């Protein structure tokens, strides 16, 4: 019997039956375009459906960048300026992104029926496992603004093993006190919902200056076809519970954090560094995307990702060994902010972090 020889034939991208190489190439190009444009999904949760858009493909052994927007915005109006910024492309090429729209905030969302019970911020956080299960993603790096930052923090407290890092912009971890509640009720008698939300998004100085950016977002909020939905999200934000962060206690974020605002005194100083950013207003992801991008790159490097990335805009001074988190203290004068500069949010004594100073 003739000796049999084993021949192994491999094909990296096998064609479908009847498919020509030209058709396969066109299909691959169409798939790439679709990924660049983002793929929108909707998943049912115990608290209603939630929409999210995925850009890129999962990278081996890398978390997904997972964003959550503030009140009055959706993922596009909150994050598009940041993620379309030129220097950000180096980051997004290395990570898959998931942009969540809070229920009823997505473009073209129908208005909820009268009497609809909108989820609390805690319940919005409880929707996140359904999204990750649907996508089969195990870990994330969260990027949140305002209400979105609170939601991601709440999620990180209850699911610490799935959160590798957090970028929290303009987070208020505290529930509204009696004085805040009274001021909010009084403002509600004299101001419209769009005006109150704009006061949440921008500083009084920015609103008085009435820049093109403020005018743009005033128009977005005032003429939003889903304004009733936005009001429901706004009410949930104002009824949030205290996150009860305790430095050195059981309730604190276990992951590296890049923090933009005032609750630095409640985070672990051994996990915290500082970036001082001036003249960025209430929405730094819109007004200073370049500097925020550079800070984000540095943050990722501290976590062990993108080691070869070049830092071009930040002047850094090392005050201790590299930590894997960054805290951004943003100089601004928003009415809901407890501190207006890094001096008013001084950390208690503890190991120093890493200082990054940005000149505007």
Strand arrangement in the largest pleated sheet:
1-2-4-3-5-6-7-10-8-11-9
User: Which structural category fits the helices and strands?
Assistant: alpha/beta
What ranges have pLDDT less than 50 throughout 5 or more consecutive residues?
Answer: 1-13, 315-360
- Averaged pLDDT: 77
Q: What overall geometry do the principal axes of the alpha carbons give?
A: globular
Compute the separation of the termini in Å.
Answer: 82 Å
Spell the H/E element sequence: HEEEHHEHHEHEHHHHHEEHHEEE
Query: What is the makeup of the main sheet?
Result: 11 strands, mixed
What would you call the quaternary organization?
A: single chain
Helix content: 25-40%
The share of residues in extended strands comes to 15-25%
Number of helices: 13
Number of strand elements: 11
CA radius of gyration: 22 Å
List keywords for this structure.
360 residues; 11-stranded mixed beta sheet; single chain; 35% helix; alpha/beta
What's the gist of this structure?
35% of the residues lie in helices and 16% in strands. The chain has helices at residues 21-37, 75-83, 89-92, 121-126, 128-135, 147-158, 178-190, 193-201, 204-209, 212-222, 227-238, 284-287, 289-302; strands at residues 39-45, 48-55, 64-68, 97-101, 140-145, 163-169, 257-260, 274-277, 315-317, 326-330, 355-357.
Give a topology summary.
Layout (H helix, E strand, L loop, with lengths): L20 H17 L1 E7 L2 E8 L8 E5 L6 H9 L5 H4 L4 E5 L19 H6 L1 H8 L4 E6 L1 H12 L4 E7 L8 H13 L2 H9 L2 H6 L2 H11 L4 H12 L18 E4 L13 E4 L6 H4 L1 H14 L12 E3 L8 E5 L24 E3 L3
